[in-house]
Amino acid sequence: MQVTRRDFMKILGATGAGVAATSCGAKLDKTPIEEIIPYVVPEEDVVPGIATYYSSVCRECPAGCGLVVRTREGRAVKLEGNPNHPINKGSLCVRGQAGLQGLYNPDRIKGPHRKNEVGEWVSITWEEAQGLLVEKLKEVLAQGERQRVSFLTGNISGNLDSLIDSWLKIFRSENRIVYEPFSYESMKKAGEIVFGVEAVPTFHIENSDFLLSFGADFMETWLSPVQYAKGFAEMHRPKKEGGQGRQMGKFVQVEPRRSMTGANADLWVSVKPGTEPFFALGVLNEALLHLWKKEGGDARKAMLRSWLSYQGITTPKVAELTGVEEMTIKTIGREFASAKRPLAIGSGVAGSGTNATATWVAAYLLTAITGSMGKTVDWGRVQNVDRLTPFTQVVSWVERLKKGEVDVLLVHQANPAYTLPKSAGFSEALKKVPFVVSFSSFWDETTTQAHLVLPDHHPLESFGDYSPQTGIHGLYQPTMRPIFKTQPMGDTLLSVAAAFPSNPFKEGRYLDYLKSSWSALYPKGGQNGSLESFWQESLRKGGYWQETHSKEVSISNRLFTFKVKEPVLEGDGEYRLVVYPSVKFYEGRGANKPWLQEIPDPVTKVVWNSYVEIHPEVAEKLEVRHGSVVELRLGESSLKGPVLLNPWIQKETIAIPLGQGHEEYGRYAQGRGFNPLSILPLQVETVSGGFAWTSSRVRMAPTGERVLLVKTSGSIDDRNRDIAGLVSFEDLKAGSVHREEEEIQDKLLYDESWRHEKGIRWAMAIDSSSCTGCSACVAACYAENNVPIVGEQECAKGREMAWIRIETYEEPSTKGTHPVNVPMMCQQCGNAPCESVCPVYATYHNYEGLNIQVYNRCVGTRYCSNNCPYKVRRFNWFAYKFPDTFNLQLNPDVTVRDKGVMEKCTFCIQRIREVKDHAKDEGRLPRDGEIVPACAQTCPTNAIVFGDLNDPNSKVSRLSRSERGYHAIESINTKTAVTYLKKVHNGLRTA
Question: What's the pLDDT at 741?
Fold first, then answer.
């Protein structure tokens, strides 16, 4: 590729030449360099070798979190949360951290393709591809019929959304489908029934003091998981450490299978699938009764009690239907009604049965009768799901495809061949469409059935905007040159439109269309200066956010005509089937990212596979064990999968995660596990019309086969080694929780040989009460430190390479056991057992308290690993490869290790050095909180704090002195630099 000196300097100044030089001989992108606005420094200050940061928007799910993209020499090397963004406020989830692997994935489609006469894919030029699309569209226009062109997209929001609508009108069509597998239709319908508002509000969990969830996995995939995890941490964090008058919210989760969200609850209530509405109404009945006794009755309460009586809701009946004790229902109802700012939220995807709307009706009523609706539920800032096409219309549209009523179908950011139930018949319907165009970046199940592929840029390579909630306008920009011969879909649509006389667009580039559309926001911004300065400031910030005000709502009379119905379950099997979204893969879109495949599931700790979760007593009855293959059958449909034993699931329930079982979608996703959608019936929720995910009874039988189902966890019991800690809020509030260091002095195994009383000692404090186990820190460490993946077989041998892992232990309390998450990394021991056994001095202690690993000294004896009590050192058994373009994601500040070398957590020493260098240039020491390791930076709940332990005023030093503080396996006197804070359990008074 010929690059002039002028072009080279322009590329280097904005994003570097590294990627442009490897972009498969593509011509230089004509996007003006000056349009790319760095997040922190102006363009002229960009220096090779120094990181540059750009604002963007995460598109790994519909939540729309803000990003800050770190680039080096033209390569995006790390994604962080944008601290200015009102949704995620600087944090990212595990899927967001893995977003780079979508950009650099070696299985991306590298240019336009068409399918030839014999069904083979042929690479073509963009001119040929667009010409072919224009030709087909002209044929449709010549027929004179309407609605023969259809456009299927995901939830793209923003101005690309409006561009598509206008573009379709050129071809006399409004045949647009906006499809997302999780469309929250029962939430919208319940809002209309209870308040007359058909929308999905924003929930301010941080303002509540009692959170009651009927199955919503708000820390995992539900609506905006980072936003709600942050809110939960604020609500559930013990306030006023070190004194009386403490406050801490309570959290109750009701569901048939304990999710990651449920594992963080103070009380987890197990109910039969499909009975959540009755449990919610039972709690509502008890809450009303308590309020009636406490405050007296009024006309509205009397009507609600009569309505519940009409539904036949009594506590004994609810207990019988749900399998929950009456006392638990009464206790939850009473405590909810007694709270100052309680919040109830309804079901998530796993609880979306044929009566899911009733769960949300009860949840809204619970919040309304206690007077906290405006404080904890915001109807002024609603989610953008109102654009989604109702599921019943999606099904009708598929039927239209089957009848041959569509001549040209264009698909963008949607894969219904995988995400729709097989019973919908989408793949068969797609064969009836004469011409299918896909803008996908990957050969997924839908794209492989297309006739023309026009691959879109990755969001990190393009301009665009996204509005996930009212008043929040996220804006993204190219952070690097395109890697392959891709093209923004907006540019493609505008180029095609220019070939038709009825073209309504004045702009020839999507960037111009976008800027023109953003001019409508400028007067609302009240900005001083020009429109161009407003645009550049928005690019720098990552968007523009408007203030919204909560709207008051009141209970509608329509509610009293609503009738709660029993769940409809298809099939004659003994077991109810629960299908739930994966915290790693969402509905399946993340399955082609190897980081997500190798990071253990936060609950089951399984890697690289999917599974059938059953109760151990059911397994004993069927004479199966972990990894045994069972067959599930529903009517004529069946699937096979390995068994995973889960004691926290209803005995008559089977649970299966979504996300695996791809037939296409690249080397990391294809052929792994199975897709439960292959047997789900096409059942809809009776009131809202949404898809009923939990609506089946299946038969299960062992096959006699057994497969490898890899789990990376060991025992859930820490065997009194003080790895996990749990205290009650009652004891904490009473002042009876104390550190136990003095009590174990006579149990020391090592002499104190190293003391850090002067200078700096870098340390961490990790609050187990805030850690949800989401594994975002694990993904961030993979990205920051060039940690390789090893695959399923090596994971089975215990050879995974993650520098940080989430250990989960069940800790006993007076009210059962509670899971405690312990992020475990190198403890940077003061008395480090690894150091004394290394024959070549590859591991030693530096003057700032860090346990250093010198890679080029290490000869691979593994003595240090054998001597490490925390098992956090990783050995490179092979020279692990970063295939094809994955090598472009490597962080140049971190050495890539080779075969035979030991490695481990360094507290992100490269970040420590970077901040120290800046501080030295300014003639000062690093400030407290200025150095933030990757794990701490991404944590949605701010559970990890880093700093100087020898600074008595630093946050990490203050936390290390907390009465909840302890060191893992403290009795062996390794003098670790990591202080854990015990998890606080805030139990209900009588439950």
Answer: 59
Residue 523's Cβ-side half-sphere holds a number of Cα atoms within 13 Å equal to 2
Q: Higher model confidence: residue 897 or residue 747? A: 897
DSSP conformational letter for 478: -
Alpha carbons within 13 angstroms on the beta-carbon side of residue 270 total: 12
Separation between Cα atoms, residue 943 and residue 919, nearest integer Å: 26
- Residue 588 has phi, psi (to 5 degrees) of 140, -10
Question: Is 28 strand, coil or helix?
Answer: coil
Q: Which helix (H) or strand (E) holds 66?
A: strand 66-72
Could you tell me which residue, 270 or 43, shows the higher pLDDT?
A: 270
Cα 296 vs. chain centroid, distance in angstroms?
A: 44
Q: What angle do CA 15, 18, 24 make, to 5 degrees?
A: 115
CB 348 within 8 A of CB 254: no
Are residues 279 and 315 in contact, defined by beta-carbon separation less than 8 angstroms?
no
Residue closest to 709 by CA, chosen among 788, 805, 823, 613: 613
Distance, CA of 979 to CA of 961 (rounded, Å): 9
Q: H or E stretch including 512?
A: helix 510-518
Amino acid identity of residue 183, one-letter, is: S
- Integer Cα distance of 667 and 656 in angstroms: 22
The three-state secondary structure class of 710 is: coil
pLDDT tens sequence across 870-890: 999 999 999 998 887 899 999
Runs of H (alpha helix) within 800-881: 863-867
Residue with tokens 């065997």: 719
What DSSP character marks residue 878?
S
Note whether 892 and 72 are within 8 A (CB): yes
Spatial strand order of the sheet with 250-255 comes to 267-270, 250-255, 210-213, 342-345
Pair of tokens at residue 889: 């994601």
Q: Which residues contact 336 (CB under 8 A, 6 or more apart)?
A: 210, 212, 283, 287, 342, 344, 366, 370
Rounded CA-CA distance 771/822 in Å is 8
Structure-token match 């009212």, residue found: 470
735 neighbors 244 (Cβ within 8 angstroms): yes
Looking at the predicted structure, is the pLDDT value of residue 935 above 80? yes
Question: Which tokens sit at 851?
Answer: 């346990």
Query: Does residue 97 register a pLDDT over 70?
Result: yes
Mean pLDDT of 409-423: 95
How many C-beta atoms surround the C-beta of residue 32 within 10 A? 11
- The domains found in the chain, sorted by start residue, are 186-387 (3.40.228.10), 575-706 (2.40.40.20), 726-985 (3.30.70.20)
Specify whether the CB–CB gap between 354 and 688 falls below 8 A.
no
Q: Residue 484 carries which DSSP code?
A: S
User: What is the residue type of 213?
Assistant: S
Which CA distances in Å does 389 have to 155, 183, 392, 849?
A: 10, 8, 8, 57
C-alpha atoms less than 13 angstroms from C-alpha of 696 in its C-beta half-sphere: 28
| Distant-in-sequence, close-in-space partners of 297: CB < 8 Å, separation ≥ 6 | none
CA 564, CA 566: separation in Å to the nearest integer? 7
Residues 6+ apart with CB under 8 A from 18: 73, 74, 75, 888
In this structure, what are the phi and psi dihedrals at residue 449, rounded to the nearest 5 degrees? -95, 0
289 vs 336: CA distance, rounded Å = 12
Give the burial string for 462-473 (b: 16+ CB within 10 Å, else e). bbbbbbbbbbbb
Under a CB-based contact definition with an 8 Å cutoff, are residues 254 and 267 in contact?
no
User: Nearest Cα to 162, choosing from 384, 383, 380, 381?
Assistant: 384
Residues 6+ away with beta carbon under 8 Å from 621: none
pLDDT value for 38:
59
Q: Which residues, 6 or more positions from 918, have their beta carbon under 8 angstroms from its beta carbon?
A: none
The pLDDT of residue 301 is 83
Collapse the DSSP code of 507 into the 3-class scheme (helix H, G, I; strand E, B; otherwise coil) and give the result: coil
**Are 278 and 238 contacting, i.e. CB atoms less than 8 angstroms apart?**
no
Cα dihedral value 957, 936, 873, 725, nearest 10: 60
